[in-house]
Amino acid sequence: MMYPVAERFVSVQGEGQFAGTPMAFIRFVGCSVGKRVCHACDTDFEQILNFRGGGSYTVQQLLEWSRPLKHVCLTGGEPLDQDLQELIHVLLEADCTVHIETSGTKLLWDYMEGPNVWITCSPKPKWIEGVVMAASELKIIVPGLGHEAGWPSLDDALRWCAAGKLTYVQPRNTKLDIDRQNLLYCQDIIREHPQLRLSVQLHKILHVQ
User: Residue 23's domain is classified under what CATH number?
Assistant: First the structure.
């Protein structure tokens, strides 16, 4: 099986619980949500970018490329548009922790369960509640938070947090830099609701990929 990969790179995770952790990132081509919905999307998932390590790769090629790192992030776009079963199985067999970043609009499969699979869900319009509740952590984009039709509201974030989900608010930033206004907005939210956490996109502060 060949996977269409927009880009591959090694960097630190910039978001959520694993911020600062070195990871191998595999960004798949395509997204069933799309930039017509995510107007401020900051990722290049539309095509294979050979100069960024993109291409069509087998499972074994992706495994060999990711070594010796023990954290591998499958992202997009929407990585769950791909059949990831074989890739996840091989990575887990190699004693990797597999991170999946999803919009919450695609169903999860049994092979995505287990202690070494970490699912980050940033719910987008038409999210599936069961997927949100099955995720390891939630990342709520601000603004978003109910300001546009179909996006999660603050009440949604607080409801998920009350249900025991690790819930972050994260500023909607520019492609390369932090949007200070949105960061201040997130800080105001967590001051009022300290059960929520702040995710800042550390990689944009460090100016790394």
Answer: 3.20.20.70
Neighbours of 196 (CB within 10 A): 21
Domain that holds residue 186: 3-206
**pTM (global) more than 0.90:** yes
* 109, amino acid identity: W
- Give pLDDT tens digits for 173-200: 888 888 999 999 999 999 999 999 999 9
pLDDT digits (tens, 9 = 90+) for 107-148: 999 999 999 999 999 999 999 999 999 999 999 999 876 667
Q: How many domains does the chain have?
A: 1
Q: Based on the number of CB atoms within 10 Å of its own CB, is 78 exposed (0-12), middle (13-18) or buried (19 or more)?
A: buried
Asked if the peptide bond before residue 22 counts as cis, ω within 30 degrees of 0, the response is no
- At 193, list the tokens: 């609701």
Q: Which tokens go with 3?
A: 């996977």
**Cβ pair 91, 65 in contact under 8 A:** no
Rg of the chain over Cα atoms, rounded to whole angstroms, equals: 16
> Please, are residues 49 and 11 in contact by the beta-carbon 8 Å criterion?
no
